[in-house]
Amino acid sequence: MLSPEQQVALTLRSVGGLRTGEIARAFLVPEATMGQRISRAKRRIRDSGVPFRMPAPGDRDARLAAVPHVLYLVFGEGYTATAGTRLFRGELAAEAIRLARTLHRLLAVRAHLLEMSGDAAGRGRCTGRRPGARTASPSSATSTAARPACDTRGPDAGMVRGAAKRPGGSVGA
């Protein structure tokens, strides 16, 4: 019914609580363009008359394909905010991590979905943008130069991947 890009944008707006400008920056398009895309997606859903319900088991994988992209973009906005006075929005990043971990525990989905959502869950160990992670003095014992940017120990250590990796396809690119 909706393209993957429309699914992700509408979910970021409706469920993720992101503003249109934040979503537009994630998709690298003007805010007005994203506003129109979101409006068209809402109108298409309304006009289709399809009831809002859980997908049938056979349709679940196709419907879940957009979820890792949403988690990735919510985490990205929390980790490095594109607007506002705060560089790090901890509550948003923490929620993306929580949801990614929940996805891992509750759903048996294809391997690429697990890997992409694992990127957000694994980055929860990164400390570089957390409050107090940086100090004014680079020679301080608590500066970022004095400790690794990510904690790679523990059961989720294998999920930490390259920070610049983006999900495949055109979503969010």
Give structural notes.
The protein is mostly helical and 173 residues long. The protein has 2 domains: 1-51, Orthogonal Bundle (Arc Repressor Mutant, subunit A), CATH 1.10.10; 60-130 and 143-167, no CATH class. It is built from 7 helices and no strands. The chain has helices at 4-14, 20-27, 31-48, 60-64, 67-79, 90-106, 111-122. α1 (4-14) packs across α3 (31-48), α1 packs across α5 (67-79) and α5 packs parallel to α7. It starts with a helix and ends in a 51-residue tail after the last helix. The model is unreliable at 135-173 (pLDDT under 50).
Descriptors:
Arc Repressor Mutant, subunit A, mainly alpha, 2 domains, 173 residues, 7 helices, disordered C terminus
Topology of this structure?
Blueprint: H1 4-14, H2 20-27, H3 31-48, H4 60-64, H5 67-79, H6 90-106, H7 111-122
Question: In brief, what are we looking at here?
Answer:
With 173 residues, the chain is mainly alpha-helical. It is built from seven helices and no strands.
Helix-and-strand structural type:
mainly alpha
Distance between the termini: 21 Å
Q: Calculate Rg over CA atoms.
A: 18 Å
Query: Which oligomeric form is depicted?
Result: single chain
Q: Order of SSEs, N→C?
A: HHHHHHH
Low-confidence stretches: 135-173
Shape: flat
Q: What's the rounded overall pLDDT mean?
A: 74
Instruction: Bin the strand percentage.
Output: under 5%
